[in-house]
Write a structure and sequence with these properties.
This protein is of the alpha/beta class. It has helices at 2-11, 27-33, 38-48, 57-73, 120-132, 157-163, 179-188, 198-210, 212-217, 257-268, 288-300; strands spanning 83-89, 100-106, 169-173, 191-196, 221-226, 245-249, 276-282, 303-315, 322-333.
């Protein structure tokens, strides 16, 4: 009976969505979620029961712990325990090439650490990267080439040859769980620096290490650094560094963020005609002023919007998957900005 109870609790586990709207189509998953009102009551009764009929103390603890996890999974995303989530991301526009699996750890969320969640905008940008290559002259030749036989494979001679070529420098700001930067390292065969606040970096570094072999197999590499946009210029590992491409997904959460993000971009984006900035922003009504302000500040910093668009995806903030509309934009330095000049934040 004990094993039956544990098996039942395990079968009731809710897996995290991958934002394709697909999890909800799985009938077995619908049964695990439990549409009836009685399931939370059932789980609560297990947690509150002394389970005196079970003699083994570790077994009782395991049952209580598992029932508590199943209950928290049904209390919204912020109550869910730490979990892994796998995203399948294309690294080429060539349909014959398989998507790569990026596995990310997402710790339990708190109000101060929303960067521990993978947001829908990050997944949309990660999937869009191969389509953006036409707008990224410094990276276009680095993308995975058509045909599986041309992929850069770890330990192959091709991989050794690629290492001798100067890799483009890519920076992700507000990387969170690292999905966009990890996808970029594989898609662009690039060295990517993933950055976020120090409280987020421990999990970010864990995810980067976990996917390091995957990106290495495609000719890329990952490094993580703590970076606070309110404390520039950085005096640590990023001091004096500049990048060909800077990326950010869903980075605006306060009135101060637009100017801080734009200042950070202006500091770290190398002043070449081929340099680019790619940003994906959810179109949330509450943060539309920040989106508009960010676009205005970028223009004042002599960065020109050269491509933009909108797309619709999914997110799981709250209960269940919900649709989210995002806007993406690509910026380049104005032609009048001479190469080699320094554009410090002001």
């Amino acid at each position: 009976m004990v094993m039956t109870l544990l098996e039942t609790l395990d079968a009731l586990a809710i897996k995290l969505s991958t934002f394709d709207g697909a999890v909800d189509d799985d009938e077995s998953h619908k049964r695990r979620v439990g549409a009836t009102d009685g399931l939370p009551r059932y789980l609560t009764s297990i947690v509150s029961n002394a389970l005196d009929w079970i003699e083994d103390e570790p077994t009782r603890e395991r049952i209580w712990e598992t029932a508590s996890e199943r209950l928290s999974e049904r209390s919204g995303r912020t109550a869910m325990p730490s979990a892994d989530r796998t995203f399948y991301v294309p690294i080429s526009v060539e349909p014959s090439l398989a998507k790569i699996p990026i596995v990310l750890r997402e710790p339990s969320l708190t109000a101060d650490n929303l960067g521990h969640k993978t947001w829908g905008a990050s997944y949309m940008l990660a999937k869009r990267l191969p389509l953006l290559l036409q707008h990224l002259p410094s990276l276009e030749s680095r993308g995975p080439r058509d045909g599986a036989q041309h992929l850069v494979v770890q330990k192959s001679r091709n991989a050794q040859d690629e290492a001798s070529i100067l890799s483009p420098r890519v920076l992700e700001l507000g990387a969170g769980t690292g999905l966009v930067g990890i996808a970029a390292a594989a898609t662009f065969r690039a060295n990517v620096d993933l950055t976020d606040l120090s409280d987020i970096c421990e999990n970010l570094a864990y995810n980067a290490h976990r996917n390091q072999e995957l990106t290495k197999a495609y000719g890329g590499s990952l490094t993580t650094f703590a970076l606070d946009w309110s404390d520039l210029p950085c005096s640590g590992f990023l001091r004096g560094k500049q990048y060909d491409l800077i990326m950010a997904a869903d980075p605006l959460y306060s009135p101060e963020h637009p100017i801080m993000l734009a200042n950070t971009i202006a500091l770290y984006l190398i002043t070449k005609s081929s340099s680019r900035v790619v940003v994906e922003l959810p179109l949330r009504e509450a943060y539309q002023p920040e989106v508009n302000q960010f676009r205005d500040i970028m223009e004042r910093k002599r960065l020109t919007l050269i491509a933009e668009g909108e797309e619709v995806g999914y997110d799981d903030w709250g209960n269940g998957s919900q649709e989210v509309r995002c806007w993406w934009g690509i910026w380049a330095w104005e032609n009048s900005l001479p190469e080699g000049c320094t554009n410090h934040p002001n």
